[in-house]
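Table S5 (text form). Sequence records supplied for joint modeling of the four-component complex.
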Amino acid sequence: MLFFVNDYGEGAHEAILAHLAETNREHLMGYGSDPYTAQAKEKILAAAGCPGGDVFFISGGTQTNETVISAYLRSYEGAVACSTGHIACHEAGAIEHSGHKVLTIPGHAGKMVPAELEAYLAAYYADGNHEHMVFPGLVYISYPTEYGTLYTKEELTEISRIAHAYHLPLYVDGARLGYGLMSPASDITLPELSALCDVFYIGGTKVGALCGEAVVFPHGAPAHFLTHVKQHGALLAKGRLLGVQFDALFTDDLYFKISAHAIQMAMKLKQVFLDKGYPLFIDSPTNQQFVILTKAEAEEIAKHAQFEVWEPHGPDAMVVRFAVSWATEDADIDALAAILPKK
Amino acid sequence: MLFFVNDYGEGAHEAILAHLAETNREHLMGYGSDPYTAQAKEKILAAAGCPGGDVFFISGGTQTNETVISAYLRSYEGAVACSTGHIACHEAGAIEHSGHKVLTIPGHAGKMVPAELEAYLAAYYADGNHEHMVFPGLVYISYPTEYGTLYTKEELTEISRIAHAYHLPLYVDGARLGYGLMSPASDITLPELSALCDVFYIGGTKVGALCGEAVVFPHGAPAHFLTHVKQHGALLAKGRLLGVQFDALFTDDLYFKISAHAIQMAMKLKQVFLDKGYPLFIDSPTNQQFVILTKAEAEEIAKHAQFEVWEPHGPDAMVVRFAVSWATEDADIDALAAILPKK
Amino acid sequence: MLFFVNDYGEGAHEAILAHLAETNREHLMGYGSDPYTAQAKEKILAAAGCPGGDVFFISGGTQTNETVISAYLRSYEGAVACSTGHIACHEAGAIEHSGHKVLTIPGHAGKMVPAELEAYLAAYYADGNHEHMVFPGLVYISYPTEYGTLYTKEELTEISRIAHAYHLPLYVDGARLGYGLMSPASDITLPELSALCDVFYIGGTKVGALCGEAVVFPHGAPAHFLTHVKQHGALLAKGRLLGVQFDALFTDDLYFKISAHAIQMAMKLKQVFLDKGYPLFIDSPTNQQFVILTKAEAEEIAKHAQFEVWEPHGPDAMVVRFAVSWATEDADIDALAAILPKK
Amino acid sequence: MLFFVNDYGEGAHEAILAHLAETNREHLMGYGSDPYTAQAKEKILAAAGCPGGDVFFISGGTQTNETVISAYLRSYEGAVACSTGHIACHEAGAIEHSGHKVLTIPGHAGKMVPAELEAYLAAYYADGNHEHMVFPGLVYISYPTEYGTLYTKEELTEISRIAHAYHLPLYVDGARLGYGLMSPASDITLPELSALCDVFYIGGTKVGALCGEAVVFPHGAPAHFLTHVKQHGALLAKGRLLGVQFDALFTDDLYFKISAHAIQMAMKLKQVFLDKGYPLFIDSPTNQQFVILTKAEAEEIAKHAQFEVWEPHGPDAMVVRFAVSWATEDADIDALAAILPKK
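The corresponding structure-token record, covering 1372 residues in total, follows.
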């Protein structure tokens, strides 16, 4: 059975497993105070072009979002996000559990429009009654978005300008950051992205690691962020587990190389669907491809390949997601092409 | 340099690494819905003698405590614990962050005394003013305790009886459960412990795993516990990372065998200190040994071995902790014996 | 200057002040355990036709909403409300502060449509991914709504049926309940409303009292609700302040009589606007009237009367709110009619 | 039946009722933006000698404590208080509900000892492990304390110095502030107290008002404190209810005069007990008197007077509290003297 369900369906890149194995019996201090964690941080800051920044490692994405966002917000503040933002719908209320509202503005193929963000913030402060409303306290975007789309450098620059004009930190959810940066459609580099935002995370779980996300504060972390991480249950005793993995990922550009490979696979996958005549729901330049299938087509393909049903598309069709990852191989795409009926 | 700082200073038992490696490229569904997680759960429930129970895997201990406790408590309830309980002092306020007070009663070498628990609860309900106070909503104990001590079966039975008489669930923090159960001083089995409590966790991080704790509800979990886990940021996308590890730990009694080995090392370590004339702070039957050293002694030993300073003991001395684990070897203890001056 | 800004611009009905004064020096027990509070509860339960129910008094509306909603919800649950519901926008994130998401569905002139509620809940449970989403845990509606509109008995019956079919409690925010029930457009009685919901509150602040809302649980309150109230800072030491006021409000139908008077004033006010040719934004049958004014008209009227600007209505006009209350007099409306230019 | 149960057993001082009545039909803007609230604030700031400060009015004490404390604390911080502090035991977990731990140090007749506070903070920062513990974020004391005792100016100065040396704000709970300041045992004035702390509140509920506490920030409030108040459900729509009351209390020194009267009554009450041979539990200089009674004595006195049982005192005796207030009259004390048996 072919597997295109998601981008976290396999274990870890072999280089990561090897690094874990070779360091396994070393006696290391806990909670991220080991040398592998230290050098992973250094490599990440170098790659992000912000040597004076701070890095923390956290096990998973929802935990990262909740911990980062609540570290920035005062209790009367909320996070501004797209209605399709991960924090707005698929984190079981983690942000609200920490006491904060997610303030949503419309999503357009997963993206917020800078002018709409600016209008929202301007209207907020124009409204004399805003003392009875949740204050915007941070701007959250995903790169790539939950629909696989990418902001342009111009859009990111504009969102950064707007957020900072309102004294709001800009947070970029990079659960799939590598798949964004390595897309040919991306016109921004990691140092450029880093310069524009206050905090972002480099997703490991979906890009080669067993688990783990690297939270980067290019311009420095909020005070006592480590305690904040601990309080949110997000501090691993064996911090090495995350440090060693990211040390491997940021050695010899592994993170970027495996991301680039995944994008090659994604483009090949997209071409297969186009060649066979299937319409795309969104023309995604990253590792998630959204295709429209009729129920009958979906049923047929499901005999050979696993994928995810995203949402209904009229009464007889549906949007489905085919995801590839660092672990997808040429042969997987070829096999899909072989079984995919021509429309 | 010899290492006795803690029990999470190495990676994972080799059988775990091997199992991760051999399953690495299998395509598995996420969030714990893979077959390795399923069989790990089954093995754990069998070992705990509660085949009808529920098991969930969570990355770390603080997160586990916070997620489990808040799943049981109504907002006006708190968790009753020893003043030395982990949740009361070393979790950076994680329980309070979820809105609940930790109600403390005195600790005696890390343990609560059943009669004191009963008196506390009786006084609470006798006090007519209790509507203005936090309700006790759950009883939390650690096995072994934070001081390496163990409750007897009689004490556990009594605490269970008292908790249930007041309709409170009993939760056992088993961060080092194996090191408790495998101690010759333990007079209780896992199924017996399981029968007495409503929820406990089997610590993996300190007993052979890279990370992970198995939360066991012998009589069934609270409704929608998985969503609760997700909301608390405690649900790993690659649930396999935890499932595969616990599958290895509960195959061929590995968890118990490596725990028993650690206890052998601990007893040998204790004997070394006693033979050389050092006083124990507590006569611990488990993997953590608390010894009293003068400042001069500590300084001398620190040239050769790492350990943890626990607390001052008068103006010139201190309590120190020497911890062993599944990874400690005979040679480590012998080397310590060789460098430890006779008093 | 005429005053139509809101319905909380004056003190209390004179009968309330008199009752406060005549009981002022009596020595009474605190926290609502005095006889005036007891008899106020009894009178309210009689008026609501649910003698076996429970009543609690809380100072204000936001506090009431937050305390009631969080008493019902488990931590992974949220409250389903209209996008225009008070809890969704004008309570500064009070619901989120207590850890819960407000799940919004569209508002139609302030009302939710039963079929849309049902579709929302059905879709929620149809979606296999709902374990990663906030569970609907309670249905919140306002009667009258924030736009002064009313649900019909049929609509309320249907919403009640749907909520209960999904095992969700139905909560009715009655900040202006009297103004709803006494409207000629209302086809439901208080006992009928009471029978349909699990909890509602009878607003005092906007209907004759200095402060205070009466929370009614027709079928009984959640366990330890008083402690819940205390924990939320909502329990007044001098509970008599609320008990005495509601005792007066529910003696000789005062609450209903002053509400009916307000509705007479509102209908007279509406007629004034219609007679002068002003378009209504919403044809409200209750005490809040929403009128469309051009900027020039608003400026002119503002020389003589205070009102509230609600929202822009195209580039040159705006929706304004004229509110009347128990304290509005015939002469106020006549005076407005005198200064209001004919369009 | 004589009434000494508490200091909130009557309504309001007549001057307050009169002021409410005379302003009752004035049309005033809501949420504290009326002129009476404005002038009450001005009068309070003048009395406190901090004309540049900020004042907010909140209905009750628990709500005030929770709202003020959470406005200052970051999520990883807690409030340092005596073990007998009101926030530590009798607020049903309100502080924890807002996510913060109450960090307790020993109480001595209700007071913290400055040297113990300093030692606690010093030890905290000396402990290398403090990143895993809740940070002290604010120092909370009560004046007078929950046991009716008073800090000296020297003690307050010292506590202020220590708190500020650790960059912690000092918060004084003044639920009974008047009864402290007007005690002959007090050696501090309101402006002196005000200068030493960052925030305090002037209790109205127990000193003449129907409800209400005035929160004073002598050196300015935290940003957006009004929204914080709203979010905590603590913002009354009819803010006038609090403004008018405090306007009356701070006109012609009413607050201080009625406090002084209460202290006269308290000293007279104390003398009655001493004259009749009853031992005091604490020699309180304020309005709460704690006396030791045998069970038989308590039973006898209870036939004529109501008082509060505080706590057991050995097997056959108990500590009881006799509270007086602004509403207590000479005749009340005389009547008690008449029925109190000589020991």
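Note: The interface with chain B takes residues 70-71, 74-76, 98-99, 131-135, 223-224, 226-228, 230-231 of chain C (CB under 8 Å).
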